[in-house]
Amino acid sequence: MDTPDGDGGQSTVFRSLDEEIRRRRTFAIISHPDAGKTTLTEKLLLYGGAIHMAGSIKSRKATRYATSDWMEIERQRGISVTSSALQFEFDGFSINLLDTPGHKDFSEDTYRTLEAADSVIMLLDGAKGIEPQTLKLFEVARLRNLPIVTFINKVDRESLPPLTLLSEIEKNLSIRALPRNWPIGMGRTFRGVFDLVERKAHLYVAQDHGSARSEEEVTDISDSRFSSILSGIGIEDEFWEEVDLLDSDLGLWDQEAFRKGHITPVFFGSALNNFGVELFLKAFLRLSPSPGAHMSDTGPINPETPQFSGFIFKIQANMDPQHRDRFAFLRVCSGQFRKGMTAKNVNTGQEVRLSKTLQFMGQRREAVDVAYPGDIIGLHDPGIFHIGDTLTEKGDFVYEGIPHFSPEFFVRVQIEDPLKRKHLRKGLLQIAEEGAIQMFTLDPEGERDVLVGAVGQLQFEVLKFRLEHEYKVRAKLEPMNYDRVRWITGPLDLISNLSSTLDTLLVFDREKSPVALFRNEWALRYVVEKYPSLGFHGTSPRT
Ligand code: G4P
């Protein structure tokens, strides 16, 4: 099936479904806060022409709060807690960049986002190497067997020696790190990067903090300018010794081992100054895979299957307080999506017409007419979608479930104004449907107190902020001294005994299923041993 594709209004390009799939790259950047993810994202968008002047994401950071004011919390805390998907074109590729929150309290959100990615960029700060959040996110990427490409940033600043950085990656992450380029100098003497594969030096001309595409000079090894730069910064011997050493590693490159996440190609550069960014982007697009088959309950589904299918990995309400809208983000896995088409939500059995759909291009939101495997589209959600739902044009399969994490922190939600109880319920329910928190009640009918569980404390701050700003409810969140949760299955009379057990609280989830909260490991073990006929599950048996 050939499809017309607007080419900036100039001409119309016809591509087959196969070609559309082959030119798609869908990936996420994982990093520790402050490593430069916002800066790198901005530079990638700059090269993709999605923005014209770098610095706009920072200013977007500022203006975004005006349009989505709960993110104010991000600004106050100086952290990134939201994730979004951005689409742009570069060098013939159609790129979907999934943004993942850097803060550790949002790793559940990251996990879901990585379900929608085909590869990952691991971004490191050259002065810091592997930091705690990099490690945690890396482990999530590894669980999914995603290919990982490493970008070592900020080499224009004093950094760890490149060889030390490589061995740190290998030691901490148990992955083989094979450099594709090598920095020419570091810190104040940084002059560019040497492409180990093409054997060319990319020398850069500094600009105003890289606000436009960088000027670069590419020279051959034999070029006298290159050797005079090396001797000028006094590293000639050391540089060639290192390159000789690395040359023997180049032969170890194995595309299959990379695809499985056993080898990571490593690039050096400076996102802020655009040093090495274009070289990196081009190499990344060639190394990283196009969308492959996705696993379903009936086996793998190939992206080339002509019928559209995909799954929802994220729900976000109130992205724009002017519209109070809610979007479900869907990753297209097969076939062609067409605006207005009807698809079946296999999880609920409902037929849905997909007419209000959005894609995010840099700062702009745009309506989507067609989309292909690898693309992320935002579906307007009047409350009919759930995280993990599979949508298909034809066929009754369900994509492999997105796992839920067990909450480890709990609060009791109280409100000052009892007349706002309905608003509170609505707010909690919507936020719980986004998957950011889990909601429990003390009775199955949900009439009594509401408790909320979350994977990280920061979720509570976001919850409080959103309740106040989006639902106009001032809530008090009273910490509860429980840190373990189990969903319980078994005879009801036995389950009800748990309510009188020490250090254990019996509650109910949104589906009215019984759940026990425990104060400590000891309380959990006591109950498990005392009630061998009950089943204890870390997540809801329905999910
Ligand atoms: P994040 O999203 O990963 O949290 O990091 P972000 O891009 O916001 O970058 C964190 C800081 O690191 C910023 O400085 C940014 O300018 C700086 N930075 C990013 N890439 C490079 C680089 O290649 N070299 C150098 N030297 N610095 C880099 P800031 O002072 O926190 O913010 P700003 O005042 O620059 O906006």
Automatic annotation (TrEMBL):
Entry's Gene3D superfamilies? Answer: P-loop containing nucleotide triphosphate hydrolases (3.40.50.300), Peptide chain release factor 3, domain III (3.30.70.3280), Translation factors (2.40.30.10)
Family the entry assigns: Belongs to the TRAFAC class translation factor GTPase superfamily. Classic translation factor GTPase family. PrfC subfamily.
General function of this protein: Increases the formation of ribosomal termination complexes and stimulates activities of RF-1 and RF-2. It binds guanine nucleotides and has strong preference for UGA stop codons. It may interact directly with the ribosome. The stimulation of RF-1 and RF-2 is significantly reduced by GTP and GDP, but not by GMP.
Give compartment(s): Cytoplasm
Name of this chain's protein: Peptide chain release factor 3
Task: Indicate yes or no for the key word Protein biosynthesis.
Answer: yes
What Gene Ontology biological process does one annotation of this record name?
Answer: regulation of translational termination
Provide the gene name from the record: prfC
Q: Which organism is it from?
A: Leptospirillum ferriphilum YSK
Any one GO CC term of the record: cytosol
Where is the Tr-type G domain positioned along the sequence?
22-292
Q: Does the keyword S-adenosyl-L-methionine apply?
A: no
One GO molecular function term? translation release factor activity, codon specific
Q: Which InterPro entries match?
A: EF-G-like_DII, EFG_III/V, G_TR_CS, P-loop_NTPase, PrfC, RF3_C, RF3_dom_3_sf, RF3_GTP-bd
Primary location: cytoplasm
Annotated GTP binding lies at 31-38, 99-103, 153-156
